[in-house]
Amino acid sequence: MAESKPKPVPDPSQESSSRPRNHAVVVGLAVIVGVAAVLRLANLGAAPPGIHVDSAANAWNANCLLHTGVDFRGDSWPLFYSRSFGGNRTVLHTYLTIPFQLVGGMNVWTTRLPNIVGGIAGIVFIFIIASKLFDTATGVAAAVFLALNPWHIFLSRWGHEAGSAPMLILGPIALLALANVPPFCRGDAPCRAGPAFAAGLAAGAACYGYYAVRIFLPAALILCCLVNWRPCRDAIASSKQRKVAFLSGVVGLAIPVLPLVWKHITDPAISQRGKEVILWQSSAGAVANVQAIVSRYFSHFGPDFLFVRGDTFFLHSFPGGVCHWYVLPFLATGLWCIIRELRRSPAARIVGVWLVLYPVADCFTQHESAHALRSIPGMLGILLTAAVGAAWIARRCVQNGRGTVYAASAICAIVMGLSSAHFLQQFLGAGFNQRSDIYHGYNTDLLDACRWLRPYLDECDAVFVTEKGTGTARRNFIITAFGFQYDPKQWLADGKELFEKGQRDIFVARYGKIHFLDGPTIYDTLSDMRSNSSKERVVFVVRPGELQLRKPVHEIRNAEGKPVIWICKGTI
After folding, report:
1. CA distance 157 to 27
2. Of 193, 176, 188, 116, whose CA–CA distance to 147 is shortest?
3. Are 279 and 374 in contact (CB under 8 A)?
């Protein structure tokens, strides 16, 4: 009988040292997540104020689907896009909003909470990615940088479908790393087909989200495999298990992606919005167009966008750039580390791909500056690179002794704390949120008027709503439907007057008894009501002095106490 080999005795010193270290990492990540949650929930209903028209459209679509099974255009559970008035929209964010409305109804909080929850999940995901690709220190640094990132905080609180982009990018890649699927595998850890299939499925499903995700994520996955083709080939050839897992991930990805690709080929409407904002103009000539694309690409790496002003469009703007200034030295160090390790490190090449593709979703579209929404998927690569630099600096400090570690930690904590406090003081305070363009751009006054009028709406025979001085560009019907908490079933049953603007935009001039003052037949409607000596109970939601009305029953005032909307009642 063969003599059995004795089992190795575990080293108690190693167990005792690893358990506290793991416990400290879990506690540290929990603290980071807690801080991130506070930053994203503080003063949520007022910073930013009101609601953006795209956020209201997402919420209104979700409410219609929840209560009627069709969106507000009457389409049953759309999959590829929703035919929103004024353009087609992706639907994944709408479906992510429905569970929150099921619990809390349709309001500003439930409109913003999906992105807040997704944003917090993204912090855990980036920790997983950085830890799997590099080490725990890099993971912690990446989580800290994302938790405190100004643009991520702002985007999480907005309710726009772009706010789900970080989660949709980071989630699938974190799952691929956890499944140990090439090229996101490290060492000899097992690679199972089931988790790999789920990771691929998640990556494919993410492409049904914001258009920038649809462009960036497939390009990043393909390019990561190409630049790491030898490690991928060797990993797949090393065992049948990894080969099956890799193929399972590809199949999982293909199941949702192939129908989406077919839809793009066969249905021009799915890419309608992209065609309208495309940068390439045939009249400009090929050379001029290429120059414009190259210039736009490199503008995303400039200090003006990253650290000074960010996106200059007023609705995308907030105090400062899309990153804190303290990220710059870590970013420079991380870039040096990545370049130095490109030849021998698959992880470095993955981050390098992320950096190279960072602006890809925004290179071919028009905007007054680099577009922070379209470039948010690649922005995560900037923070990953900075995390690599921070971890390298931390290791050098440890080599120089505890005194250096304590001093460097104290300096970092002070600088990061002061920078974050300065941003939050500006962003959460009155200086930003009561700015005139922000106040009106987020329809704060019109939303307040709708809330005030809502209890009296059933008593009115007709309501006439202004279109002047709002940030909705003839889409006030969405803001009013949101603000009135309008019944989706009533919306579908209402008669509507529609009118077109240009080649794509279709707007609602009237739904039910709600009329809008820039409709093509509005003055005919008012004249008919006057000539017929109607005794209908009419309410006007107008700017002060509009239609020569006087004696409002209620005024909506801005932060300075100035009347910005009158609500007038009467008969015609």
Report:
1. 25
2. 116
3. no
Top pLDDT among 182 and 301 is at 301
How confident is the model over 145-181, as pLDDT tens digits? 999 999 999 999 888 999 999 999 999 999 999 998 8
Give the sign of the dihedral formed by CA 278, CA 284, CA 290, CA 295: negative
Give 40's contacts (C-beta < 8 A, 6+ positions apart): 116, 119, 120, 153, 156, 157
Same domain, 471 and 357: no
CA–CA separation, 153 and 544 (whole Å): 36
Who's near 364: CB < 8 A, 6+ residues apart? 278, 279, 280, 293
Which tokens in the block code for residue 402?
């505890």
For 541, the domain range is 438-571
Residue type, 205: A
CA distances from 350 to 187, 202, 353, 355, 547 (A): 16, 19, 5, 9, 61
Q: Where a domain ends, among 431, 457, 475?
A: 431
- Say how many domains are in the chain: 2
482-503 per-position pLDDT tens digit: 999 999 999 999 998 887 665 4
Say how many C-beta atoms besides its own lie within 10 A of residue 449's C-beta.
26
* pLDDT tens digits for range 302-330: 999 999 989 999 888 877 889 999 999 99
Tokens describing residue 436: 């005139």
Considering the domain boundaries, does residue 340 fall inside one? yes
pTM metric for this prediction: 0.91
Within 342-401, residue ranges assigned H as helices are 346-357, 376-399
Contacts of 127 (CB under 8 A, 6+ apart): 29, 32, 139, 140, 142, 143
| CA distance between the termini of the chain | 107
| Arithmetic mean of pLDDT over the chain | 88
Is there a contact between 100 and 159 (Cβ–Cβ < 8 Å)? no
The answer to whether 377 and 206 have CB atoms below 8 angstroms apart is: no
Q: How many residues does the chain have?
A: 572
Judgement on whether residues 401 and 375 belong to the same structural domain of the protein: yes
Same-domain status, 422 and 451: no
